[in-house]
């Protein structure tokens, strides 16, 4: 039987979370889906996980292991190369998906949809204690109203918005990470530059590259993918305020990252800087230079000044180095604009987790001890919509 969907999971030393995803996958009764695991963990940890997989005995789970020290980009590339599905979705080992994704795949294939971005749910694993709210958000999953609304989206317009924000945010770009993409589109990217992920941060580098080729792209308001943020993930580290560091000390980055770092981007590792650097590298490698002249450095520097206060001097040095091409009034405007947006985010989103009075009428927050319980709750909510639709 033809494989419609490959769920691809590159992993390293985080089997505790991955076992929940594997247990969920084995409960799905379909041969149109496969699970690809590419494991770059230490040998001792792999032995225990291999024993776990042996007890599962599911031929749809394809397990590969690699002894070489791989960057995150290399691990993702090798994982995707093993996938055979018509569509591919890449997840972190602390994420999960909905089995109902298969209900939609058939129609997407018939309509020749090349990329799909589901509105995702977010689960904060109990081991994460956010910097601002302590353990009040730990173990929480927020579920909104499922509308199943589909929006046909022009990826190049979204890319233009990302460029206008200095590459500091991924926005609604089509993507393989937490999204779904046709293997045909991914193969074109690989043919162009020898990688599915042409930049040091795989998620946004791939998203930029996809925009060169994708034409039929939709966003669907159904949580077919759930982003898990654990203590060992970038999302979890960001919640705890630890997503910063020296580029040379970040082991998951490609070896030449520091040497090839753009002069436009402040020289340190954070969510903002690694995204911006990856956008620039992806545009270069995919020969999409027409976007580079509109790259909004003022927005990038303002965003860094708001979020990356520990690196203020490096940001200022970068501003001075690029001073000839900057508009200081725009930088100041963006600084206050981003601060306002940040405060609004905390009021409208984070406070919902800890103060029920801030909840929208269509929102609910549930405590779950692990992401498998989250998936079962999420599936039951999607089923309500599917049953309602089919009546």
Describe the secondary structure blueprint for this structure.
Elements: E1 5-11, H1 15-26, E2 33-39, H2 43-56, E3 61-65, H3 72-81, E4 87-90, E5 96-97, H4 101-110, E6 115-118, E7 121-124, E8 140-143, E9 150-152, H5 155-164, E10 180-182, H6 183-193, H7 202-210, E11 217-220, E12 225-229, H8 234-239, E13 244-245, E14 269-270, H9 271-285, H10 297-307, H11 312-321, H12 328-354, E15 364-367, H13 371-390
Parallel strand pairs: 1-2, 1-4, 2-3, 6-11, 7-12
Antiparallel strand pairs: 4-10, 5-12, 6-10, 7-8, 8-15, 9-11, 13-14
In a few lines, what is going on in this structure?
The chain has 391 residues and is an alpha/beta fold. The protein has helices at residues 15-26, 43-56, 72-81, 101-110, 155-164, 183-193, 202-210, 234-239, 271-285, 297-307, 312-321, 328-354, 371-390; strands at residues 5-11, 33-39, 61-65, 87-90, 96-97, 115-118, 121-124, 140-143, 150-152, 180-182, 217-220, 225-229, 244-245, 269-270, 364-367. The two termini are 30 Å apart.
Your description of this structure?
The chain has 391 residues and is α/β, with parallel strands linked by helices. It has 13 helices and 15 strands. It is 42% helix and 15% strand. Strands 3-2-1-4-10-6-11-9 form an eight-stranded mixed β-sheet, with helices on both faces. Strands 5-12-7-8-15 form a five-stranded mixed β-sheet. A two-stranded antiparallel sheet has the order 13-14. The longest helix is centred in the C-terminal third of the chain and has 27 residues, at 328-354. It is globular.
